Amino acid sequence: MGRIIDIIGGVLIGIVVVIAVVLNKRSHGNYSLDKRYFQRRWTKLQKLCSDRKLWYKAIVDADNLLDEALKRKHFKGKSTGERLVSAQHYFSSNDSLWFSHKLKNRIEEEDLRKLTKQQTLDALASFKLALTDIEALSSKRKGKTS
To answer: Do residues 100 and 53 touch, judged by C-beta distance below 8 A?
Structure first.
């Protein structure tokens, strides 16, 4: 009889944990973001790409924009990296996002200014996808070409 009670208790604890995880994941979705604001900021940082000398700044700005969106969605963490971990299940390409975030850290820590076109394109595409994944940017701009 005691063994059955232990099993039932274990199953109930498992159910509670699953419910808590689902509710926690949903709670971030309850914070809607102003997509127009984030689209304006994204468009502004894209303009930096017209000057090769400013590619590094576009990547830094994209990482900062993502961090701002994560904060506004109330993802936990004291740093961008911690918030990325907290939000990792929302991202469709977590590995490439981490590569891009680490590139941004190298830009700041090593004063890295010379980037290849491919590094820049990959990093910005990854940040844009992440912003879309957490609904800071629309996946398609309705009525407008982008």
So the answer is: no
pLDDT digits (tens, 9 = 90+) for 93-144: 999 999 999 999 999 999 999 999 999 999 999 999 999 999 999 987 544 4
Structure-token match 């990325």, residue found: 84
Prediction pTM value: 0.77
- Please state, in angstroms and rounded to a whole number, the distance separating the CA atoms of residues 96 and 37: 25
Q: What HEC string does 12-48 produce?
A: HHHHHHHHHHHHHHHHHHCCCCCHHHHHHHHHHHHHH
Cα Rg of the chain (Å, integer)? 19
First-residue to last-residue Cα distance in the chain: 66
Query: pLDDT by residue (tens digit) across 48-105?
Result: 999 999 999 999 999 999 999 999 999 999 999 999 999 999 999 999 999 999 999 9
Cα separation, 30 vs 37, whole angstroms: 18
Q: Which of 129, 74, 75, 127 is nearest to 99 (CA)?
A: 127
Amino acid at 63: D
Per DSSP (E only), the strands in 17-113 are none
Quick one: how far is CA 74 from the chain centroid?
12
Q: Tokens 């910005």 identify what position?
A: 124
